[in-house]
């Protein structure tokens, strides 16, 4: 029973999120039902490196699936792309992995991008891909504030109430904020994130960007460890899982 | 009766194109019906700098409209953004213009971008925004071939049969082809373009990129002045009107 890694992108708009739910169609369900065609009709379990919420997109999500037959990875990729139609999911690569490899637990890094459209007019071309903030943001102040969150901390203040992680300790490796014309783009990297951590950090940094809070505030929220003190959870549509890192190079086909 | 310039973006996917047509909803119709709310209910004519086809997008389209009342441009912008809802059109700016100014005839430059997604897997995140070409393209060869089209020429070979321009003479100022990861991006600039000119040039350059035709071919097609000899018309969804230039600086509000 060979184990495959899958590298794929999706538009999160029409899905209830990565994870299977009774309330609607998930990315996991579409992939598992597509994989069943390669598994003698039996629906296998597909496990992702990062479980994204409803509306969150992915450019470089990684998942694993074990199939009954020995298929070349190119075949797995092509067949999944055929059977996931017409849903906005595209498998970019597949690879045969050792039995002890885990998409989730072997990952040593996850990276996200969050896009804010910072202008008066609502988004037309980027509808569903950005958070629209009309008030002018000071991206330099947001970046400076973000640097106070780097390193290993108890991120309880930036954690969703529903977060199932055993420990609130996480090590934030990168949190950059930059202005690109009308956009303010936040890039975040860590070994792993808590549930809603990126969106809560973004919502908190935006308070600084609007001038409502000082640059030191996101750090003091962190130290308070109290979710009630942080800014709002930024909306999901601005968020994209851009990539997952593993210690070994994966031979994507 | 003040004349206003409008700067706006739109997602071309749901429209029959810029121009009003009996067959469906156009960008022009949505804008004109929105402008009627500022014009005592009378539907004014909105004239665009570049009439885009169905499925073609715009990041920086410019148009003009004459309204009965004297309104500050900020008000025109905000009201149009309100009344164009929920259509994917966003007015980025408005300006009061002299009576002899024409969005179409005063323009001295138009710029387009065409995006090709060049990979095996179909697009998920960029569905409707790219032309999907699976076979690997040689972007450097395409760029070299494109340089043979620069300058003032009779572009009959790259013109749509339906093109209404009086003269097939156009001066192509820029036609760059560059690879950005999985994408091949073509940028084109000229004072004006013939109908389908960009898409026909892209379709022809792709033949070179696939190695089916030599680098010299697009130039020899140009010299043949015969539409039948050029490559296919690239699909509309990869094309975006990125901007329109005027001799004077416009004070967008």
UniProtKB/TrEMBL annotation, chains A, B:
Listed under subunit, the entry gives: Homodimer.
Family per record: Belongs to the tRNA pseudouridine synthase TruA family.
Q: Does the keyword tRNA processing apply?
A: yes
Domain of life where this protein originates = Bacteria
For this chain's UniProt record, which GO biological process terms are given? Answer: tRNA pseudouridine synthesis
- Entry EC number(s): 5.4.99.12
The name on file for this protein is tRNA pseudouridine synthase A
Q: Where is the active site?
A: 53
Q: Where does substrate bind?
A: 112
Q: Which InterPro entries match?
A: PsdUridine_synth_cat_dom_sf, PsdUridine_synth_TruA, PsdUridine_synth_TruA_a/b_dom, PsdUridine_synth_TruA_C, TruA/RsuA/RluB/E/F_N
Organism name:
Neoroseomonas lacus
Sequence ranges assigned to domain Pseudouridine synthase I TruA alpha/beta in this UniProt record: 9-105, 145-247
Task: State the organism's lineage.
Answer: Bacteria, Pseudomonadati, Pseudomonadota, Alphaproteobacteria, Acetobacterales
Would I find Isomerase among this entry's keywords?
Answer: yes
Q: Which reaction does it catalyse?
A: uridine(38/39/40) in tRNA = pseudouridine(38/39/40) in tRNA
Give the keywords, sorted. Answer: Isomerase, tRNA processing
Function according to Swiss-Prot or TrEMBL? Formation of pseudouridine at positions 38, 39 and 40 in the anticodon stem and loop of transfer RNAs.
GO MF annotations in UniProt: RNA binding; tRNA pseudouridine(38-40) synthase activity
